[in-house]
Amino acid sequence: MTETVLPALSLDLQNKDAAGFAERLGASFREYGFAVIADHGVPADLIAQAEEDMRVFFALPEDVKRAYHVPGAAGARGFTPFGTEIAKDAKAHDLKEFWHIGRALPADHQHAEIMPPNIWPKEVARFEQTFAALFDALDKAGIRILDGISDYLDIGRDLLRDGVTDGNSVLRLLHYPPISVDAPGVRAGAHEDINTITLLLGAEEAGLELKDRSGRWLPVAPPPGALVVNIGDMLSRLTNDVLPSTSHRVVNPPPERRGNARYSMPFFLHFRPDFLIETLPSCLDGRENRYPEPITAQNFLEQRLREIGLA
Ligand SMILES: O=C(O)CCC(=O)C(=O)O
Ligand SMILES: [Fe+2]
Prior knowledge:
By secondary structure, the protein is α+β, with helices and mostly antiparallel strands. An eight-stranded mixed β-sheet has the order 1-2-10-7-12-5-4-3. A four-stranded antiparallel β-sheet has the order 6-11-8-9, with no helix packed on it. The chain has helices spanning 13-16, 18-32, 44-58, 62-66, 127-153, 158-164, 233-238, 297-307; strands at residues 8-10, 34-38, 78-80, 97-102, 170-176, 188-191, 197-201, 208-211, 217-219, 227-231, 248-250, 262-269, 276-277, 295-296. The protein has eight helices and 14 strands. The longest helix is centred in the middle third of the chain and has 27 residues, at 127-153. It starts with 7 loop residues before the first strand and ends with a helix. Bound molecules: 2-oxoglutaric acid and fe (ii) ion. This is 2-oxoglutarate-dependent ethylene/succinate-forming enzyme. Pfam families: 2OG-FeII_Oxy (PF03171), DIOX_N (PF14226). Belongs to the iron/ascorbate-dependent oxidoreductase family.
C-alpha cells in the first residue's frame, strides 16, 4: 500500500470521548484539510452493493447512458458524459464520467426547484433502492462528522446541523475508464471541492493525492471501507480558512495499471441554498477576515459551477 500521512480515525471514539475525537479530527483537518474516518456507520454490504450497481450502470452502452443526461441541469441529476467537467483554470477536461443523485424533497418544498426529483436508470433494477439508502447513510455519517467539527471549533452543534438540513447535497458515482499507455494529463485535475465537507468512498484504488502546505503532492491511501473526508470551500470560507479546503487531484496510474478503470463515490454535503456563509466570529480571533462579504450557499454554488463548465 502507498504510504500515507493520514491515519484512520474511528468515529466510534465520538461516542466514548467526543472531545478527544474532535481534537484529532480538527488537527487532521487543520493540517491537511483531510481526515480518514473508519467505523463511520455506512454498512459494508450497502457499499459493496453500490460498487456492484455502479459498475453495471457504467458498463451500459454509451447511447443508453447518454439518454440520462439532463441538458441545462448543470449535471445536478443523472448522467454527465466523459470529458464534460474541467477543473477550474485547467487546460484539459477530466478523464471521467459520472452520475449524480440528489436530496429527495417534497414537491411543495421551498427549495424544490433547486433540488429537482432524482432520475433513475431503468436498466439497473436495484439502482434506486441502493443509492437512496447510500445517500441517507452518508448524510447521517456527515452530520456526525460535522458534530466533531463543531466540537473542535467550540461553536455548539446547532449551527452546522441546521445549515445542512435540507441542504443541496449530492452523491456522485464516478467512473474513470481505462486509459491508454501514453495518455497525457490526469484523471481529475487539481481542484478544491465547492461544498461543506466531502465524504469519499472507494479511494482505495491508488491515484488520489492532496497538496500539503509546502506544496508537495501526498497520496491519500485509506484502509478498505474507510471514508476520506475533506473540507470544501464553503466550510473553509465560514471558518476563515482555519479549516482549509485543500487542493486534490486523481493522477493517472503507472503504465502497467492503465488498463484498470477507477470507481469512486464522493458525497458532497452541502448547506441549504439560503444558508448565509458569514465568517464565524470565533475564527476571527486576532486574524484578518479573508471573506468580509457574506454570500448564500446557492449564490456561491452558481458562481463555482460556471467556473468548472457545469453551468
Ligand atoms: O475519485 C476520487 O477519488 C476523487 C474525486 C473528487 O475529488 C471529486 O469528484 O471531487
Ligand atoms: Fe474533489
